[in-house]
Amino acid sequence: MKRLRPILMAVLCAALLSACVQYKSKRGVEVKWQSDITEQLQKGKSTRGEVLALLGPPSQLISLEDETVLYYLFERTKGDGYILILYNRFTVDARYDRAVFFFDENDILSDYSTHIHEAEDD
Amino acid sequence: MRLKTINPYRSTCIVFLALFLAGCTQWRYDMGDHIRHADLDKLQQGMPLTEVIAIFGPPQRISSNVSGYVMAWEHWQVDEDSLGIRLGALGADILSLDWGKARIRGEFLLATFDREHRLSGSTVSQWDNDAGGGQGIQPFIGVVSMVDIDDLVAQMPQHLWGANSLRELPRALNSPSSPISGDAGLEQRGTPPSIGQKSLELR
Q1: Which residues pair with A87 in a beta bridge?
Q2: ipTM of this complex > 0.85?
Q3: Which of B181, B48, B50 is nearest to B118 (CA)?
Q4: Is the dihedral of CA A121, B190, B154, B198 positive or negative?
Q5: pTM (predicted TM-score)
Q6: In whole angstroms, what is the distance from residue B167 CA to residue B174 CA?
Protein backbone atom coordinates (compact mmCIF):
# COMPACT_ATOMS: atom_id res chain seq x y z
CA MET A 1 0.00 0.00 0.00
CA LYS A 2 2.83 2.34 0.90
CA ARG A 3 4.37 1.71 -2.50
CA LEU A 4 1.17 2.66 -4.25
CA ARG A 5 0.74 5.93 -2.36
CA PRO A 6 2.61 8.18 -4.86
CA ILE A 7 0.69 6.67 -7.76
CA LEU A 8 -2.63 7.16 -5.99
CA MET A 9 -1.68 10.72 -5.14
CA ALA A 10 -0.79 11.39 -8.77
CA VAL A 11 -4.07 9.90 -10.01
CA LEU A 12 -6.00 11.93 -7.44
CA CYS A 13 -4.23 15.12 -8.48
CA ALA A 14 -4.95 14.41 -12.12
CA ALA A 15 -8.62 13.82 -11.36
CA LEU A 16 -8.92 16.99 -9.29
CA LEU A 17 -7.10 19.16 -11.80
CA SER A 18 -8.95 17.99 -14.90
CA ALA A 19 -11.82 20.04 -16.25
CA CYS A 20 -14.17 20.50 -19.15
CA VAL A 21 -15.36 23.77 -20.62
CA GLN A 22 -18.13 24.89 -22.91
CA TYR A 23 -18.65 28.38 -24.23
CA LYS A 24 -20.65 30.44 -26.68
CA SER A 25 -20.11 33.82 -28.25
CA LYS A 26 -22.73 35.79 -30.15
CA ARG A 27 -21.93 38.96 -32.05
CA GLY A 28 -23.79 41.10 -34.50
CA VAL A 29 -27.32 42.23 -35.16
CA GLU A 30 -30.37 40.33 -34.00
CA VAL A 31 -31.53 37.75 -36.55
CA LYS A 32 -34.87 39.03 -37.85
CA TRP A 33 -34.60 37.67 -41.38
CA GLN A 34 -36.57 34.49 -40.82
CA SER A 35 -38.63 33.41 -43.83
CA ASP A 36 -41.95 34.51 -42.31
CA ILE A 37 -40.59 38.07 -42.14
CA THR A 38 -38.82 38.17 -45.50
CA GLU A 39 -41.97 36.82 -47.16
CA GLN A 40 -43.37 40.31 -46.65
CA LEU A 41 -40.69 41.70 -48.98
CA GLN A 42 -41.16 41.91 -52.71
CA LYS A 43 -38.48 42.60 -55.27
CA GLY A 44 -39.33 45.66 -57.33
CA LYS A 45 -41.82 46.90 -54.73
CA SER A 46 -40.47 46.98 -51.18
CA THR A 47 -38.53 50.05 -50.18
CA ARG A 48 -35.36 50.46 -48.17
CA GLY A 49 -37.44 52.06 -45.42
CA GLU A 50 -39.60 48.96 -45.17
CA VAL A 51 -36.57 46.68 -44.89
CA LEU A 52 -35.03 48.90 -42.22
CA ALA A 53 -38.33 48.95 -40.35
CA LEU A 54 -38.49 45.15 -40.40
CA LEU A 55 -34.86 44.33 -39.68
CA GLY A 56 -33.45 47.37 -37.93
CA PRO A 57 -30.03 48.96 -38.52
CA PRO A 58 -27.64 46.81 -40.57
CA SER A 59 -24.13 45.65 -39.73
CA GLN A 60 -22.79 47.36 -42.81
CA LEU A 61 -24.12 49.85 -45.33
CA ILE A 62 -22.50 49.90 -48.74
CA SER A 63 -23.10 52.31 -51.58
CA LEU A 64 -22.37 52.13 -55.29
CA GLU A 65 -23.26 55.50 -56.78
CA ASP A 66 -27.08 55.62 -56.48
CA GLU A 67 -27.42 52.02 -55.30
CA THR A 68 -27.24 50.93 -51.70
CA VAL A 69 -26.70 47.58 -50.02
CA LEU A 70 -27.75 46.68 -46.50
CA TYR A 71 -25.73 43.84 -45.02
CA TYR A 72 -26.78 42.04 -41.81
CA LEU A 73 -24.48 39.66 -39.94
CA PHE A 74 -24.89 37.62 -36.81
CA GLU A 75 -21.86 35.56 -35.81
CA ARG A 76 -22.30 32.64 -33.43
CA THR A 77 -19.30 30.84 -32.05
CA LYS A 78 -19.63 27.68 -30.04
CA GLY A 79 -16.76 25.92 -28.35
CA ASP A 80 -16.02 23.10 -25.99
CA GLY A 81 -12.95 21.54 -24.58
CA TYR A 82 -11.48 19.29 -21.98
CA ILE A 83 -8.43 19.85 -19.86
CA LEU A 84 -6.70 16.70 -18.71
CA ILE A 85 -3.40 18.37 -17.77
CA LEU A 86 -1.39 16.05 -20.00
CA TYR A 87 -3.67 16.49 -22.96
CA ASN A 88 -6.05 19.39 -23.60
CA ARG A 89 -8.32 19.82 -26.56
CA PHE A 90 -10.63 22.64 -27.62
CA THR A 91 -12.90 22.93 -30.62
CA VAL A 92 -14.42 26.17 -31.85
CA ASP A 93 -17.13 26.40 -34.51
CA ALA A 94 -18.12 29.75 -35.97
CA ARG A 95 -21.22 30.08 -38.12
CA TYR A 96 -22.57 33.16 -39.84
CA ASP A 97 -26.24 34.06 -40.19
CA ARG A 98 -26.45 36.78 -42.79
CA ALA A 99 -28.72 38.73 -45.10
CA VAL A 100 -27.99 41.10 -47.94
CA PHE A 101 -30.42 43.52 -49.62
CA PHE A 102 -29.76 45.53 -52.78
CA PHE A 103 -31.66 48.73 -53.57
CA ASP A 104 -31.75 50.65 -56.84
CA GLU A 105 -31.48 54.42 -57.30
CA ASN A 106 -35.13 54.80 -56.24
CA ASP A 107 -34.52 52.89 -53.00
CA ILE A 108 -36.57 49.94 -54.26
CA LEU A 109 -35.46 46.41 -53.39
CA SER A 110 -33.85 44.83 -56.46
CA ASP A 111 -32.28 41.67 -55.00
CA TYR A 112 -31.87 39.98 -51.66
CA SER A 113 -30.69 36.79 -50.06
CA THR A 114 -30.76 35.44 -46.51
CA HIS A 115 -29.15 32.57 -44.67
CA ILE A 116 -29.74 31.26 -41.16
CA HIS A 117 -27.62 28.40 -40.01
CA GLU A 118 -29.66 25.35 -39.09
CA ALA A 119 -29.76 23.46 -35.80
CA GLU A 120 -28.65 26.32 -33.62
CA ASP A 121 -30.34 27.12 -30.38
CA ASP A 122 -30.74 30.70 -29.23
CA MET B 1 32.83 4.16 -0.81
CA ARG B 2 29.18 3.33 -0.51
CA LEU B 3 27.02 3.38 -3.64
CA LYS B 4 23.79 5.29 -3.35
CA THR B 5 20.79 3.03 -3.99
CA ILE B 6 17.87 4.25 -6.08
CA ASN B 7 14.81 4.97 -4.05
CA PRO B 8 11.81 3.50 -5.97
CA TYR B 9 9.35 5.96 -4.41
CA ARG B 10 11.45 8.92 -5.38
CA SER B 11 11.84 7.58 -8.92
CA THR B 12 8.09 7.15 -9.24
CA CYS B 13 7.52 10.68 -7.99
CA ILE B 14 10.05 12.09 -10.46
CA VAL B 15 8.42 10.24 -13.36
CA PHE B 16 4.98 11.52 -12.37
CA LEU B 17 6.33 15.01 -11.80
CA ALA B 18 7.84 14.98 -15.27
CA LEU B 19 4.55 13.79 -16.72
CA PHE B 20 2.45 16.34 -14.88
CA LEU B 21 4.69 19.16 -15.92
CA ALA B 22 4.18 18.30 -19.59
CA GLY B 23 1.05 19.15 -21.48
CA CYS B 24 -0.28 18.92 -25.01
CA THR B 25 -3.00 21.32 -26.17
CA GLN B 26 -4.97 21.22 -29.38
CA TRP B 27 -7.30 23.89 -30.76
CA ARG B 28 -9.62 23.19 -33.68
CA TYR B 29 -11.45 26.05 -35.43
CA ASP B 30 -14.13 25.61 -38.08
CA MET B 31 -15.48 28.87 -39.52
CA GLY B 32 -18.12 29.24 -42.18
CA ASP B 33 -19.81 26.76 -44.45
CA HIS B 34 -18.18 24.40 -46.92
CA ILE B 35 -18.38 25.57 -50.56
CA ARG B 36 -19.63 22.69 -52.69
CA HIS B 37 -17.84 21.85 -55.95
CA ALA B 38 -21.16 21.17 -57.66
CA ASP B 39 -22.20 24.76 -56.94
CA LEU B 40 -18.97 26.16 -58.33
CA ASP B 41 -19.63 24.41 -61.63
CA LYS B 42 -22.87 26.37 -61.97
CA LEU B 43 -21.06 29.72 -62.13
CA GLN B 44 -21.08 31.24 -65.61
CA GLN B 45 -19.92 34.57 -66.92
CA GLY B 46 -22.83 36.99 -67.25
CA MET B 47 -24.98 35.13 -64.71
CA PRO B 48 -27.35 37.43 -62.76
CA LEU B 49 -26.49 38.32 -59.19
CA THR B 50 -29.88 36.97 -58.11
CA GLU B 51 -28.92 33.47 -59.23
CA VAL B 52 -25.50 33.56 -57.63
CA ILE B 53 -26.83 34.56 -54.21
CA ALA B 54 -29.61 32.00 -54.59
CA ILE B 55 -26.93 29.27 -54.93
CA PHE B 56 -24.38 30.40 -52.36
CA GLY B 57 -26.51 32.53 -50.05
CA PRO B 58 -25.45 36.00 -48.94
CA PRO B 59 -21.67 36.50 -49.21
CA GLN B 60 -19.57 36.67 -46.07
CA ARG B 61 -17.67 39.66 -47.41
CA ILE B 62 -18.95 42.35 -49.76
CA SER B 63 -17.70 45.63 -51.11
CA SER B 64 -18.48 48.01 -53.92
CA ASN B 65 -15.83 49.19 -56.35
CA VAL B 66 -15.66 51.35 -59.45
CA SER B 67 -16.99 48.63 -61.74
CA GLY B 68 -19.64 47.07 -59.51
CA TYR B 69 -19.54 44.71 -56.53
CA VAL B 70 -17.02 42.25 -55.22
CA MET B 71 -18.20 39.41 -52.97
CA ALA B 72 -16.54 36.54 -51.17
CA TRP B 73 -17.63 33.28 -49.57
CA GLU B 74 -15.19 31.42 -47.34
CA HIS B 75 -14.68 28.36 -45.18
CA TRP B 76 -11.69 28.07 -42.87
CA GLN B 77 -10.40 25.26 -40.70
CA VAL B 78 -7.49 26.11 -38.44
CA ASP B 79 -5.67 23.54 -36.31
CA GLU B 80 -3.25 24.57 -33.59
CA ASP B 81 -1.16 22.05 -31.66
CA SER B 82 1.23 22.86 -28.86
CA LEU B 83 3.31 20.94 -26.40
CA GLY B 84 4.99 22.29 -23.31
CA ILE B 85 7.32 20.52 -20.91
CA ARG B 86 8.65 21.93 -17.68
CA LEU B 87 12.23 20.82 -17.26
CA GLY B 88 12.08 20.77 -13.48
CA ALA B 89 12.37 17.01 -13.34
CA LEU B 90 15.69 17.28 -15.18
CA GLY B 91 17.06 19.77 -12.69
CA ALA B 92 16.36 22.88 -14.74
CA ASP B 93 13.41 24.11 -12.73
CA ILE B 94 13.33 27.55 -14.28
CA LEU B 95 13.08 26.38 -17.86
CA SER B 96 10.23 25.16 -20.01
CA LEU B 97 10.48 23.56 -23.41
CA ASP B 98 7.71 24.61 -25.81
CA TRP B 99 6.73 23.49 -29.28
CA GLY B 100 3.82 24.47 -31.46
CA LYS B 101 2.51 24.31 -34.99
CA ALA B 102 -0.58 25.35 -36.94
CA ARG B 103 -2.22 24.12 -40.09
CA ILE B 104 -4.91 25.80 -42.19
CA ARG B 105 -7.37 24.38 -44.68
CA GLY B 106 -9.95 26.39 -46.51
CA GLU B 107 -11.83 27.57 -49.55
CA PHE B 108 -12.37 31.11 -50.79
CA LEU B 109 -14.68 32.07 -53.62
CA LEU B 110 -14.33 35.58 -54.99
CA ALA B 111 -16.92 36.90 -57.44
CA THR B 112 -17.18 40.27 -59.14
CA PHE B 113 -20.34 41.79 -60.59
CA ASP B 114 -20.74 44.65 -63.02
CA ARG B 115 -23.14 47.56 -62.55
CA GLU B 116 -25.90 45.60 -64.25
CA HIS B 117 -25.54 42.94 -61.51
CA ARG B 118 -24.04 40.39 -63.92
CA LEU B 119 -21.19 38.08 -62.94
CA SER B 120 -18.08 39.55 -64.53
CA GLY B 121 -15.54 37.18 -62.99
CA SER B 122 -14.96 34.54 -60.36
CA THR B 123 -12.07 32.68 -58.87
CA VAL B 124 -11.75 29.96 -56.27
CA SER B 125 -8.81 29.04 -54.12
CA GLN B 126 -8.47 25.99 -51.91
CA TRP B 127 -5.57 25.33 -49.61
CA ASP B 128 -4.20 22.91 -47.06
CA ASN B 129 -1.05 24.53 -45.75
CA ASP B 130 1.36 24.64 -42.89
CA ALA B 131 0.64 27.93 -41.09
CA GLY B 132 3.88 28.06 -39.15
CA GLY B 133 5.05 27.12 -35.73
CA GLY B 134 8.06 27.16 -33.53
CA GLN B 135 9.92 25.81 -30.58
CA GLY B 136 11.76 27.36 -27.72
CA ILE B 137 13.16 27.15 -24.24
CA GLN B 138 11.70 29.81 -21.97
CA PRO B 139 12.32 30.71 -18.35
CA PHE B 140 9.63 30.32 -15.67
CA ILE B 141 6.58 30.73 -17.88
CA GLY B 142 5.93 30.66 -21.61
CA VAL B 143 6.13 34.36 -22.47
CA VAL B 144 6.19 33.97 -26.23
CA SER B 145 3.52 31.95 -27.97
CA MET B 146 4.99 29.39 -30.36
CA VAL B 147 2.03 29.72 -32.73
CA ASP B 148 0.11 32.90 -33.52
CA ILE B 149 -3.22 32.41 -35.27
CA ASP B 150 -5.14 35.40 -33.89
CA ASP B 151 -5.38 37.04 -37.30
CA LEU B 152 -6.83 33.86 -38.80
CA VAL B 153 -9.59 33.35 -36.25
CA ALA B 154 -10.62 36.97 -35.71
CA GLN B 155 -14.27 38.03 -35.86
CA MET B 156 -15.75 39.22 -39.13
CA PRO B 157 -14.90 42.86 -40.00
CA GLN B 158 -18.56 43.88 -40.42
CA HIS B 159 -18.81 44.17 -36.63
CA LEU B 160 -16.35 47.06 -36.79
CA TRP B 161 -17.98 48.93 -39.66
CA GLY B 162 -19.49 51.78 -37.62
CA ALA B 163 -16.84 51.82 -34.92
CA ASN B 164 -14.15 52.18 -37.56
CA SER B 165 -15.16 55.80 -38.17
CA LEU B 166 -15.09 56.61 -34.48
CA ARG B 167 -11.50 55.65 -33.84
CA GLU B 168 -9.04 58.22 -32.60
CA LEU B 169 -7.12 60.29 -35.06
CA PRO B 170 -5.13 59.55 -37.13
CA ARG B 171 -6.64 56.02 -37.40
CA ALA B 172 -10.12 57.35 -38.21
CA LEU B 173 -8.63 58.88 -41.37
CA ASN B 174 -8.08 55.34 -42.68
CA SER B 175 -11.83 54.64 -42.80
CA PRO B 176 -12.54 55.60 -46.43
CA SER B 177 -9.86 53.22 -47.73
CA SER B 178 -10.28 50.50 -45.14
CA PRO B 179 -11.44 47.02 -46.26
CA ILE B 180 -13.88 47.18 -43.33
CA SER B 181 -15.81 50.08 -44.89
CA GLY B 182 -17.40 48.00 -47.65
CA ASP B 183 -16.53 50.71 -50.16
CA ALA B 184 -12.85 49.99 -50.59
CA GLY B 185 -12.51 46.32 -51.50
CA LEU B 186 -12.13 43.36 -49.17
CA GLU B 187 -9.38 41.15 -47.91
CA GLN B 188 -8.93 37.59 -46.73
CA ARG B 189 -8.21 36.53 -43.19
CA GLY B 190 -4.55 36.60 -42.30
CA THR B 191 -3.54 39.26 -44.81
CA PRO B 192 -0.41 40.93 -43.38
CA PRO B 193 -0.92 44.64 -42.57
CA SER B 194 2.26 45.50 -44.42
CA ILE B 195 0.89 44.68 -47.87
CA GLY B 196 -1.92 46.07 -49.99
CA GLN B 197 -3.94 49.14 -49.09
CA LYS B 198 -3.45 48.52 -45.38
CA SER B 199 0.22 49.34 -45.75
CA LEU B 200 -0.80 52.99 -46.34
CA GLU B 201 -2.85 53.22 -43.15
CA LEU B 202 -1.99 55.84 -40.57
CA ARG B 203 -1.13 54.44 -37.17
Answers
A1: B24
A2: no
A3: B48
A4: negative
A5: 0.84
A6: 9
